[in-house]
Design goal:
The complex is a heterodimer of chains A (318) and B (241). Chain A has 318 residues and is an alpha/beta fold. Chain A contains 11 helices and 14 strands. Chain A folds into 2 domains: 215 residues, Rossmann fold, CATH 3.40.50.300; 63 residues. In chain A, helix 3 packs across helix 4, helix 3 runs parallel beside helix 5 and helix 5 packs parallel to helix 6. Chain A starts with a strand and ends with a helix. Chain B is mainly alpha-helical. Chain B has one domain. The chains are: A alpha/beta (318), B mainly alpha (241). The interface between A and B is medium-sized, with 32 and 26 residues.
Chain lengths: 318, 241
């Protein structure tokens, strides 16, 4: 039995399709769901955490159906939403104790001490949250989530708005949890973090999985080298053997090539001849960013759909 | 219901740490009691303070309920509600805990107002009469906090909600029987006052103070509370899937 299993999971907000027939299975790993804003990441998490009813399809979490056995699902998961919600007028210990009581944890005060120690918050446990930094507040939320020893942990953008050191610390904790056998489902925008810390990632675009696999596999699938060209104005990508156009983001145009160092001068020549002004060119190993760009296509803000629909979606997501 | 006490405990703890809010809520009803209850020259009763105290107690409950209405909406906007909804604790206890907290906080505030009233010269009544008074205030508190919570969840916007609560609190108070008996009101006001839910609570408390047992107002209040609570549960279900 897999920890998370979805089958054709679909969510429509009126006529806007946020998640489109998503089929996934996740088990005992750190799974990263990546995607641009408005691609359906949060909607997916909300459905899996039983906060939203799917329009179509089904999903099982810890072997329980998310609609029929919602309460059973809720007792084996923990969910940390994107917006940091901790009571600033309470102390760290009080915040965690509150969740321990809600979960009905036995030996609550010992368990609270334990998770505070795991999250390295013991020294500050009796201070008001007002005095905590962003990274500490996020760790406190993790402590709240861990208090009942869930088997699946859902984290929506766990490192958003944190500094580099705090991010690294959060990821180290997530990794440690994974080693203990927990399944962790993360959504993130940060490709470098997903690359470094996720066992497997799924790139979601317009509600559909566009690429799925371990970061290493996905990068390998994208051939060997990436050539990035910074250009002025319009650019029609030339057709050269062994060079594939990936996408454009701002004034940067990316290509992949089997042999980058040979393709580079040819490409420069072709572009110059077609009248493109080249500002800079670079050659490097592919990163998850390139995989993302290829899977999602041109990175656009989702202004394509109607503003009204987008607002409905935002309202429902709250 | 599991969780109700825990949710209430959280709110009471938060409330007790906001010193300004604890005091400021009492200023307005205390001012009414002292400046109007003691100073207004009225002819229809010998002890105006005794007449106005039930009105001020209900008014205290009204403003406690209206100011508490925004609490659940804030939990929703700030992301707490989503965390709570993902817990195995029964979801209804979030709502029940909130309404009991708002009502409980209102009862604490009315107690302080009651003590002030006694200190400045209101007449002491028997323990049974106080118990009945508290039952009426409790029912009225649940009614108002369920109503306010419903409106706030429905409006889903803090500015609109505070505009709404400012808009209704004064008119509700002035068109009730809080300040004067029906006999001295102009005809049109008496008609409105008879329909005002505040009057049911105020008249019931006055009836208790006079030694009666207000069965009808109590039943009306209970009926209204059940209906509004039902609507509140529906709205809560809607915002939480």
């Amino acid at each position: 039995m897999n920890a998370i299993e979805t089958h054709d999971l679909t969510k429509y907000y009126d006529t806007l399709c946020a998640v489109d027939h998503l089929t996934l299975s996740v088990n005992n790993e750190i799974f990263g769901l990546l995607g641009p804003n408005g691609s359906g990441k949060t909607t997916t998490v909300l459905m899996l955490t039983t906060l939203l009813h799917p329009t179509e399809g089904s999903a099982m979490v810890c072997g329980n159906d998310i609609i029929d056995k919602a309460e059973a699902v809720r007792s084996c998961i923990s969910y940390v939403p994107q917006d940091m919600a901790v009571d600033i007028k309470l102390t760290g210990r009080e915040n965690v104790r509150f969740f321990a009581d809600l979960y009905g944890v036995s030996h609550a005060s010992d368990r609270v001490d334990e998770v505070l120690a795991v999250m390295e918050l013991t020294d500050r446990a009796d201070d008001l949250i007002k005095t905590y930094s962003g990274g500490m507040r996020r760790r406190l939320e993790l402590a709240q989530a861990l208090v009942h020893e869930p088997s699946v942990l859902f984290l929506d953008e766990p490192t958003i708005g944190l500094d580099v050191a705090a991010r690294k610390k959060i990821w180290e904790h997530i990794r440690a949890l994974r080693k203990k056998g927990m399944t962790i489902f993360v959504t993130t925008h940060y490709m470098d973090e997903a690359d470094q810390f996720c066992d497997r990632v799924g790139i979601i675009s317009k509600g559909k999985i566009a690429a799925l696999g371990s970061p290493t596999d996905l990068k390998a699938r994208l051939m060997k080298d990436v050539i990035t060209v910074r250009v002025d104005g319009e650019c029609t990508p030339p057709t050269i053997d062994g060079v594939v156009f990936v996408g454009r983001s701002g004034d940067e145009v990316s290509f992949t090539a089997e042999n980058g160092s040979e393709a580079l001068p040819v490409l420069a020549d072709m572009l110059a001849r077609s009248g493109v002004t080249i500002r800079a060119m670079s050659l490097r190993e592919p990163t998850l960013d390139d995989v993302f760009l290829q899977a999602v296509g041109q990175q656009e803000e989702p202004h394509g759909f109607e503003d009204g629909k987008f607002r409905i979606m935002l309202r429902r997501r709250k | 219901m599991r969780g109700v006490v825990t949710y209430m405990k959280r709110d009471f703890l938060k409330w007790s740490r906001g010193r300004v809010a604890v005091i400021s809520a009492l200023v307005m009803p205390a001012a009414w009691l002292i400046f109007v209850g003691l100073a207004l020259p009225v002819k229809f009763t010998g002890n105006y303070l005794d007449f106005i105290t039930p009105g001020i107690l209900v008014m205290t409950m009204l403003s406690a309920g209206l100011s508490g209405g925004a609490l659940l909406m804030f939990d929703k906007i700030l992301g707490f509600l989503n965390k709570f909804l993902a817990l195995p604790t029964p979801r209804g206890s979030i709502l029940v805990g909130k309404i009991l907290f708002i009502t409980g906080r209102g009862l604490i505030q009315t107690t302080i107002i009651l003590v002030i009233a006694l200190l400045i010269g209101a007449t002491l009544i028997s323990p049974i009469q106080y118990a009945l008074t508290y039952i009426i205030l409790f029912l009225f508190g649940v009614l108002i906090s369920a109503f306010a919570t419903t409106i706030a969840l429905y409006l889903d916007d803090h500015d609109s909600y505070s505009a709404f609560s400012t808009m209704i609190s004064m008119p509700l108070f002035f068109t009730s029987s809080a300040l004067m008996p029906y006999s001295v009101m102009p005809g049109w006001l008496a008609t409105i006052a008879h329909l005002n839910p505040l009057s049911f609570a105020i008249d019931a408390v006055r009836d208790v103070t006079a030694g009666g047992l207000p069965v009808v107002p109590l039943l009306v209040l209970l009926g209204l509370t059940v209906v509004v609570m039902g609507i509140c549960v529906q709205v809560f279900r809607k915002v939480t899937v």
